Amino acid sequence: MFSKDISGRFESEQTPFYHYDLPLLKQTLSECAEAAASYGFHVHYAMKANFNSRILQLVKDAGFGADCVSGNEVNKAIEIGFSPEKVVFAGVGKSDREITEALNHNIFCFNVESVQELEVINDLALKAGKKARVALRINPNVDAHTHHNITTGLAENKFGINQWELPACAEVLTHAKALWLEGIHFHIGSQITDLNVFKSLCVKVNEIKVWFEERGFNIRVLNVGGGLGIDYYQPDVHSIADFKGYFGIFNQFLERKHGQEVHFELGRALVAACGSLISRVLYVKKGIKKNFLVLDAGMTELMRPALYQAYHKIENISKAENEGLVRYDVVGPICESTDCFGKEVELPESERGDLVAIRTAGAYGEVMASRYNLRDEIRFLYSE
Ligand SMILES: Cc1ncc(COP(=O)(O)O)c(C=O)c1O
Ligand SMILES: N[C@@H](CCCC[NH3+])C(=O)O
Hints:
Blueprint: H1 4-7, E1 17-21, H2 22-39, E2 42-46, H3 53-61, E3 65-68, H4 71-80, E4 87-89, H5 96-104, E5 109-112, H6 115-128, E6 132-137, H7 166-175, E7 179-185, H8 196-214, E8 221-223, H9 243-253, E9 261-266, H10 268-271, E10 275-286, E11 291-295, H11 304-308, E12 314-316, E13 325-331, E14 340-348, E15 355-358, E16 380-383
Parallel strand pairs: 1-16, 2-3, 2-9, 3-4, 4-5, 5-6, 6-7, 7-8, 8-9, 11-13
Antiparallel strand pairs: 1-10, 10-11, 10-15, 12-15, 13-14
The protein binds pyridoxal-5'-phosphate (PLP) and lysine (LYS).
The site of lysine (LYS) has 7 residues, from loops.
């Protein structure tokens, strides 16, 4: 249950807003950093999960790098103070302008997603008089066993370079004057809870690394992406992911030579748990077959349930827990039938004005908000 100490502060606040529990975020970052350091691993925070400035500042202070997926994310990471040496730029469709700006920032590495992109980066780097450090994002065709819409490492997905194109990449890299190959990169999907999936990934990475080494390329960096899943069902029991167990898999199954670095790009597992969307009950609609709880937050503030039928725990934080339970479809005010946070959700009997917390919304929540229906700008509140 959401802490009463915290929720007491919300009564007079204008809703909806995102609440970020910064002490929990700091604890999560420190456990992750410590677990990674124990194996000598490096973590870049996937800032697409949440680029709220307060959060980025804490992530940077905890020593993480930044994994960016647009020129604007690269610029923001630099603005916040991430060292360019710790900034990587990924994405299947980087524009010429974005590439040139990132070159001018002297970022650590571009994660390259096609043979053509490799050629374009070479041309733009030549023009800018720079050398671009690149890693090839390879599609390993490993099933992440997660929601279909957030799977990225299957041959049918748009992401990464297919293995049959590796000889073409090797050819470009051999002749390109402005490219420097740092390593190979993989990211197979998000919200992965079956850790065996990462073992399968390690097997593929080992295989592909050898392919390059046999052809005389030095692979200094093995970037295995992100994707570590979290517990959306019991946010207070498992508020921090098992980073030690996760990194332990890679330590055990990834073959590393002396001097080879292992990089990760975690997003969700670092920031999901610290965020909740706080909303107020506008109306209780009683029906014969159904009761609706109409909130003042909707899919415009948190899109995941509408987009992926994603589960987020919903709590009425104005009422004592588990008293007089009633089933509700918890919906928002947006003119879309998919604007629903949960069906048949058991909650204490609720009334107009009650505060509702939609938990574990710190990743892919605020950043995916939209102004559809000309909604207000998103608001925030932090616990220090
Ligand atoms: C290339 C890349 N790296 C890292 C991430 C971060 O993933 P997650 O938030 O699941 O850790 C993503 C998003 O899925 C991604 O596309
Ligand atoms: N936005 C997705 C994750 C996509 C990650 C980016 N590749 C989610 O909310 O779960």
